Amino acid sequence: MPVYRPRKPTSAPSEGSLAQRDAFAATARQSLLDVRASAEAWRNGLSAFLALVTTGVIIKGRDTTAGLPTSWRLAVTLLIGGGLLCAVIGLWRVLAAQAGTRYRLSTLQELRSRYGSIETYHVAIAAEAIGKLNTGRRFVFVALLLLLSGVGVNWWAPTAPTATYVQITSTTNNACGALRSADDGQIRLATTGNQLIAIPLAQVTRLTVVNTCQ
């Protein structure tokens, strides 16, 4: 197997090549700073957004969903909860892009053996930060969709049926229906078949307000 032998260049690098090399080195050194500055701006905006949404959900969430049926309330909870979770994950990724996650110092020899040069090392770290920032932004986009969907479902969901029926247990019989009147010592109910019945108050042993008549 032939052994590779590097050849000496036939001529020295031109001024244009040297200028491009210096420009690349300057860009490599600046790339990580630019990415982390962008990540910091995203972190500040996302932190304010998450604080605002979380405050609104904690303060108004229970009041706005208290009158919803169970299935609709579960849907709103899943959408808003999923949106908040995605927002937290997105914020964490943006924080990682802004602060960096390298905790072990490397020697110059290790950096050169792995990356070839300091400029390439800066570019690799910047590319890693860009990947985390893009992942964080995608999570923020999903969080916005989920939160807006949760708000929309909350707006259009039907209200839970109110307790408008009365279950009466008396000494003579049991009855359930919509309350029509209670006067002259009698309680009048409209049953499911729209039949009006009257039960003397003196015979009532138990009266319960229910959602529906069984």
Automatic annotation (TrEMBL):
<feature type="transmembrane region" description="Helical">
    <location>
        <begin position="71"/>
        <end position="95"/>
    </location>
</feature>
<feature type="transmembrane region" description="Helical">
    <location>
        <begin position="139"/>
        <end position="157"/>
    </location>
</feature>
<keyword id="KW-1133">Transmembrane helix</keyword>
<protein>
    <submittedName>
        <fullName>Uncharacterized protein</fullName>
    </submittedName>
</protein>
<keyword id="KW-0472">Membrane</keyword>
<keyword id="KW-0812">Transmembrane</keyword>
<feature type="transmembrane region" description="Helical">
    <location>
        <begin position="41"/>
        <end position="59"/>
    </location>
</feature>
